[in-house]
Amino acid sequence: MSRLRQPRVQAALVAIVGGLLVYTVANVVFPYHTSNHDEAVYLQQAAMLLEGQLFLRPPVDGPFRPWFFVESGRGLYSKYTPPTAAMFAVGKLLGGYRIALGLVATGALAGTYHTVREAFDARTGVVATVLMLASPLFVVEASVFLSYVPAMCWNLAFAALYLHADRTGSRRTATLAGLAVGVAFFTRPYTAVLFATPFIFHALWSLRERGRAVLDRVGLTALFGLVGVAVTLCYNAVMTGHPTVFPYQAFAPLDDLGFGHREIAGYSRTFTPQLSLRVNAEVLWLFATEWVVAGPLGTLAALVGLRTVRRRGFDDRQLALAGLGLSIPLGNLFFWGNLNVLGELADPSDGLISFFGPYYHTDLLVPVVAFGAVGLLATVEWAHETLPRHVSARRAKPAVTALLLVGATVGAGATVAAVAAPVGENYDVTRQYEQAYEPFEGRDLDDTVVFLPRTYGDWLNHPFQTLRNDPDFDGETVYAMQRQQFAVIDSYPDRSYYRYVYRGQWAPFLDRSVEPRLQRVRTTSGEAVTTDITATVPAAAESVTIQITNGTANTSANEYTTATDSSLVSLQLRTDANRSRLTGDSIEDSIGVPTPERGTVTVVAFVDYGADRAVKYRWALPVNGTDSGVRVLTPRTEVCWSERLCGGQAAYVPGAHRDGIALNATVRQG
């Protein structure tokens, strides 16, 4: 038991418990990852590093491009630098990627203890470590595959080693501090600069005050820090062709620091100083009231700690730590990403910040928990000193105990509430993901290709993060976008094919689920192929308009309207290299369109209920011309009650439709 009283042991236990907690949250709350799709970027990059690859070289250009990957003549590469992915790859080597999350969290908590111990004392370090673990921003960010806590881990390693070297004069520790800040720069360059700035000022002050006595030590830290900068520039040169062009700039040249027109992936804003001040004020308010330990109570404790240290007198090391409270917020004024995390400024529940907090300010937790620990301990000391002056000696100890219990209860309640809110919101998203991915659960998809919808454009893993390819695109299941499908099939001729489709708007972050389907896709080829189409017609329908298009033809000449006298529509679409003709119920003469050489023939049945009520049935048949005829795939079928969702979010899912609507399509030669 005496060992448990040692601060170092206490801090180690907190760090270990924190790692286990983060590992648990990662598995329970985020089994399908999050609505921040950058997670898949790091995990794809981690898998590449494990295979010794910096570039992806897919078998077909286009349908295999992952989210946030840059196209180049040498292949696809991530817009992010590799240190974070390398840390996650270590977890995979140990048994699973999420193991890395637990280890990184443990490292960050250990770094918190050592940094605060160096600036104050061991007891304060232990309390600060507990406060870090109890902060919602830390718990959430540490539990997901993003770079903010890994970068903070390296920054804390630098801070602890730098302060230790400053105290002891150790050249070895100074060297390690330089290496740590170098890796931090390679991980998140601007974040590392903002974190290191107060310590750079401290180093310059130390040189001014102590001269050559600290020159060697500070020089070693600077030298090895610059090694990290050099490695980063070399990496840039290899990937982008220029040492000062970072991969994220190659991906989106206008996604940069400063003011003016900013743009990424088709989204743009004019970022002005006035807008920046408004945005960052809101971000910092949310940080201080919702995302630090116990919400506003944690912020209050930090302010009490600052006042306490000011009254006692800051030393230069404590000033360096306090300086993070200036360098990080001021530096973020120049970064438009803080606008993006907020979404619509008028809606505090909008944007990624409602799920993940102000993650660009993650390092700001360091001074908050450090001075928060000072504030808590100062408050306890004040209670021990003050209460005996107002109550008898016999009652003083019970009064202090009661006061501490009440304070602990209030603080614990506020802490639990603060952590539970974002964790609960993210778990609600996970429940929607659980339904969306249900067709993949327990299903044998060995030796298959699965075509995925382009929900947010021509990207894989955006949003389908769990459906990732192996770096060599030769895994048991290969995922491709629903484009250039015949080229993909030609690259995997001996596999089975599926199409993942769904009904409803993809918005799990709005607590909306979709109705998914994994549709079997088959190829049929010949001089001509026939697609037999059937669909039920609700009894209340007044008429049905049949239409056929090829994406370019004039549709008005290729449609037929008939009154409904049957509960079933039965059609035959015959496609050859020249023309696609539609025959069937009540169509006196066939209607048709030229067959595209490579495209889609679409049949639409517009079922009119009158009184502005209608439903549209769609069969989209992928067609590819061949030397001997045509080749087609099983058509994609939709039931559209809303034109806005038609063409991607209205998939026909058997048994999921009102009025008992049922659609079918089979393809055969001839």
Description:
This protein is an alpha+beta fold. The chain folds into two domains: 2-32 and 79-422, no CATH class; 524-669. It contains 19 helices and 20 strands. Strands 9, 11, 12, 16, 17, 18 and 19 form a seven-stranded antiparallel sheet that branches. Helix 1 packs parallel to helix 5 and helix 5 crosses helix 17. The termini are far apart.
The helix content is: 40-55%
- What is the mean predicted local confidence, pLDDT? 92
Task: Indicate the structural class.
Answer: alpha+beta
Radius of gyration: 31 Å
Number of helices: 19
Spatial gap, N to C terminus: 84 Å
Query: What is the beta-strand fraction?
Result: 15-25%
What overall form do the CA principal axes indicate?
elongated
Tell me the quaternary state.
single chain
Quantity of strands, as a count? 20
The parts where pLDDT drops under 50 for at least 5 residues are none
Biggest pleated-sheet summary: 7 strands, antiparallel
How many structural domains does the protein architecture include? 2
Task: List its salient traits.
2 domains; 19 helices; five-stranded antiparallel β-sheet; alpha+beta; elongated; 48% helix
